[in-house]
Design goal:
Number of strands: 4
Strand content: 25-35%
Shape: elongated
Oligomer: single chain
Order of helices and strands: EEEEHH
Radius of gyration: 18 Å
Length: 86
């Protein structure tokens, strides 16, 4: 049974909350960068709090991914200078 489906078209964000046969709430949420998060919660309130938290932290997660990507590229560059090839 689907409890809630919401799409925020201006930012391409959306979420779905479904009540499962096991008695939990299954959440699927996509942030404005297209990154998908999932969760299972025993209470609807917790499922809604997860959606709010996930969507509001999209910029922080993107910065963390970008920082990791930059660090990885720097490591590869250092390895190449030392003769390590991939």
């Amino acid at each position: 049974m689907i409890i809630c489906v919401k799409t925020l078209k201006n930012n391409n964000m959306n979420y779905t909350i479904k009540f499962t046969n096991q008695g939990s709430f299954k959440v699927e949420v996509t942030d404005k960068y297209g990154v998908v998060g999932f969760g299972h919660f025993s209470k609807k309130q917790w499922a809604m709090e997860y959606v709010v938290s996930y969507l509001s932290s999209a910029d922080k997660r993107k910065k963390e991914r970008d920082d990791l990507h930059e660090a990885t590229l720097k490591c590869i560059e250092l390895d190449k200078k030392r003769g390590i090839n991939y």
